[in-house]
Amino acid sequence: MRVTVLLLPALLVSMDLSILFVAAPSISAALTPTGTEWLWMMDVYGFVMAGLLITMGSLGDRIGRRRLLLIGAALFGAASALLTLATEPWTFVLARALLGIGGATLAPSTLSLIRGLYPDEHRRRRAVGAWTVAFTGGSVAGPVIGGVLLEHFWWGSLFLINIPVMLLLLVTAPFLLGESKSPHRARFDLPGAALSLPAVLGPVLAMKHAASHGPDARAVTAAAVGAAFAAAFVVRQRRAAHPLIDVRLFRARAFSAAIAANTAIALAASGVGVLAFTFMQAVHGLSALHAALAALPTFAGTIAGATLAGALAPRVRPALLLASGLALVAAGFAVIAQIRADTSLWAFIAGYAILTVGAGVTGTLANGLILGTAPPERAGAAAGVSETGTELGAALGIAVLGTAATTVYRIAMEDTAATGPATETIAAALAEPGLADAATAAYTSGVTTAAGISAAVLLPVIALVAWALRGTRPS
Q1: Top-level CATH class of 247-475?
Q2: How many C-beta neighbours within 10 Å does residue 360 have?
Q3: Looking at the chain, which terminus has fewer C-beta neighbours within 10 angstroms, N or C?
Q4: CB–CB of 76/15 below 8 Å?
Q5: Under the phi-then-psi rule, with left for phi > 0, alpha for psi from -120 to 50, and beta for the rest, what region is 434?
Q6: Average pLDDT over the chain, rounded to whole?
Q7: DSSP count for the chain of H helices, then E strands
Q8: What is the DSSP string of 117-156?
Q9: What is the rounded distance in angstroms from the CA atom of residue 245 to the CA atom of residue 59?
Q10: For the chain, what is the radius of gyration of the CA atoms?
Q11: 201 and 225 in contact (C-beta within 8 Å)?
């Protein structure tokens, strides 16, 4: 029961990243945003959450992870209510930003509380596996639940469902969860927190802008500013008496390898995942709801992978198990890279299911290594670092792989003598007579290119993980 209280907020935090995928037409029709406003409506939740994860994880170590969880639940619920009342775009943007702040408190709190609830390695691994399924599966559950709700209710119902879960958390957590925090009294590193926000948001903004407009001066400036603040943040953390994160954690090969594995998985999966629903709808003609339902085997794959990791971890060396999980992800992408527009949709689903099994194995073992390697008093900060890496990997994956897929699509369509919007989006091409076959073939080529790049990116990470974890024994 106690771990269930932590799984529900983890599920909702992840779900609210993807639930707008199926709600875009309904929300756009109701609030009539401009193109720029819609980008902010989509992106601000992830931006804010990514920028605050390290800060909130460290804050939980100091004031209490349960206390921070309850604060985040109240804010997440209030922001969800505000979203349902939005009547114009910028109210929606503000509410999504507040939701991001709430998400940044909930995500590291839920994972770090598991560290205190389950000091036994075996039980903690099972709990971390369940958390991994909830957090990873939320991105799949979001479009599924969103599609079902939109069949019967208005778009605000997508956020209204958060409120009873947060109320349940507020009522039950004080009784089911003990407080957990660092035993050492330390001042909060406010200068470090101020430096961490632009250090994270700089590269995210650069990648998002480059994906839409190319690597122009604005993207380069954002990246340079982010890099400068990142360097200043590292210097601050090395010199501060009570830093947000102990940079010495990265000297532990198991910790660094686990962070690298989670980041690589997020990069590859998010980059192809953002293309998947359009592929199923535009190329294979599925509705938004049917596309979401067709993705359910990927959720089952995550569960299978987490279960497999929990069963094998006590007997198999981490180097072999984590590398094998990453190899399964690469194999799944390799399957997707072979499909064509006329290939059965089930080949695509099968490849995706294979990679989610690998993601379940990798996420469960990597998160377990992160919590097990970090000192108990630093569990919140360690969880924040892990999830920040995941968010940055996802942003990089969407930017780089999305750009690669778009470029392949554009070149293929220009070769057919198509012009205008039809060379930019498959939706525009399908609206023009005679372009359907060329457009579906071009979009499929973009998806397979992104999948091939993902598989290639994972290969050196597999080697790195196997080397970094050599000699580490099962636990």
Answers
A1: mainly alpha
A2: 30
A3: N
A4: no
A5: left
A6: 81
A7: 18, 0
A8: H--SHHHHHHHHHHHHHHHHHHHHHHHHHHHHHHHHS-TT
A9: 11
A10: 21
A11: no
Instruction: Please report, for residues 180, 230, 265, 333, 431, the alpha-carbon distance to residue 330 in angstroms, rounded to integers and kept in the order given.
Output: 38, 30, 9, 5, 35
303 vs 417: which has the higher pLDDT? 303
Tokens in use for 116?
């205190």
CATH code of the domain occupying 1-179? 1.20.1250.20
Phi and psi dihedrals of 62, rounded to 5? -90, -45
Residue with tokens 């599924």: 144
| Domain segments of the chain as ranges | 1-179, 189-241, 247-475
Q: What is the pLDDT of residue 181?
A: 65
Mean pLDDT within 200-212:
74
Encoded tokens for 406? 């778009």
CA distances from 271 to 54, 404, 469 (A): 23, 10, 27
For residue 22, pLDDT over 70 is answered with: no
424: phi then psi, degrees, rounded to nearest 5: -100, -40
User: What would the two tokens of residue 447 be?
Assistant: 């998806």
Tell me the per-residue pLDDT of 42-57, one tens digit each, with 9 for 90 and over.
777 877 887 787 788 7
- Spatial neighbors of 129 by CB under 8 A, at least 6 apart, are 306, 307, 309, 310, 360, 364
What is the rounded distance in angstroms from the CA atom of residue 167 to the CA atom of residue 291? 31
List of residues 6+ apart from 291 with CB closer than 8 A: 143, 277, 280, 281
CB atoms within 10 A of CB 358: 26
